[in-house]
Amino acid sequence: MGAATDTNGDPMRKLKIIEHISLDGVIQHSADENDFPFGDWTTPYRTPVGRDAILAAHGGSFDLLLGRRTYDAWSRYWPTVRSNLMADRLNAATKFVTTHRPQSLEWGPFEGLGSDVVEAVRRIKLQDGRDLILSGSSTLTSPLLEHGLVD
Predict the structure, then answer these.
(1) CA atoms within 13 A on the CB side of 140
(2) Which secondary-structure segment (H or E) carries 111?
(3) β 63-67/110-112 pair status
(4) d(CA 140, CA 145)
(5) pLDDT tens by residue, 7-64
(6) Among residues 44, 16, 32, 24, which one has the least CA distance to residue 137?
(7) How many Å apart are CA 45 and CA 103, to the nearest integer?
(8) Is 41 exposed, middle or buried (0-12, 13-18, 19+ CB in 10 A)?
(9) Axis crossing angle, helix 85-92 with helix 48-58, rounded to the nearest 10
């Protein structure tokens, strides 16, 4: 199977959604967010095999599509992690962030997308660059699926 192309045959970036989600719909990771008592539910499943599967799903290099809350949570954590494959890849990725406050973004490289995520993702997918990964940011999933933007 070849690379994805637009209607003119030009290459497109792919957008993959990778979520750690429980069967009852819990995506939230940290127990300290919004007093959520069931955070960090994935800890028992963090094994070398699980790590390798997540690394393989992401691929060697990628860019990120993030909602503002996920960006803020990750920007407090990932830049502080000792060098490893996932931390290095996440820190190197361009973070495309849906936000009304792009001037407050600091964990880069980054690009603020504003509030129209559908049009922004359409534009980004037509640019040359690495594939996009959406992780966390669950409120972005439905509109992207509804508009056929997820690969």
Answers:
(1) 33
(2) strand 110-112
(3) unpaired
(4) 9
(5) 555 558 999 998 777 777 666 655 455 555 666 666 677 788 887 888 888 888 899 9
(6) 16
(7) 37
(8) middle
(9) 30
Using alpha carbons, list the distances in angstroms from residue 48 to 53, 54, 66, 148: 9, 10, 26, 34
Please give the single-letter amino acid code of residue 29. H
Rounded CA gap, 76 and 73, in Å? 5
Residue 81 vs residues 21, 30, 91, 105: alpha-carbon distances, Å: 23, 16, 10, 19
The residue with tokens 């497109």 is 12
Nearest-5° Cα angle at 13, 12 to 16:
135
H or E segment and range at residue 96:
strand 95-98
Q: How many CA atoms lie within 13 A of 15 on its CB side?
A: 23
- Mind listing the pLDDT tens digit for each residue in 100-150? 787 888 898 999 997 789 999 999 999 989 999 998 877 888 899 999 999
- Among 17, 5, 53, smallest CA distance to 151 is for 17
- The amino acid at residue 87 is A
